[in-house]
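Pipeline run #58 for the internal structure catalog. This entry was flagged by the ingest filter as a single-chain record with no existing model, so it goes straight to prediction. Upstream metadata was stripped on purpose; only the residue string is passed forward. Reviewer on rotation: M.T. Logging verbosity set to normal.
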Amino acid sequence: MIKVTYVASDGTKTDVEVHEGNSLMHAAVANGLDGIIGECGGSAMCATCHVYVDEAFADRLPPIDDMEEEMLECTASERRKTSRLSCQIEASSEIDGIVVSMPETQI
């Protein structure tokens, strides 16, 4: 299991144990976390699972592909240097302990 800390826009932190291979979006939705919607079910087609990855982990993630890049241009909240779609982040030992912050709004 991989530890993921989700930080709500109000600063509330929630630690979730995620099975390796699951997306951070699916884990957030399965655990009922407010702040990640995932309208498209994880196919990188809606940007409602936008998160800000802690800078300490940003370089550990695979590069953003063209589809994710396009969706990140459509986020409801400000896009930042560490913006990612949580449906495109797969839990793995390389990111154990990752911290992701949720924006104020997704829609």
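catalog note: The chain has one domain: 2-101.
catalog note: The chain is about 15% helix and 20% strand.
status: ready for reviewer M.T.
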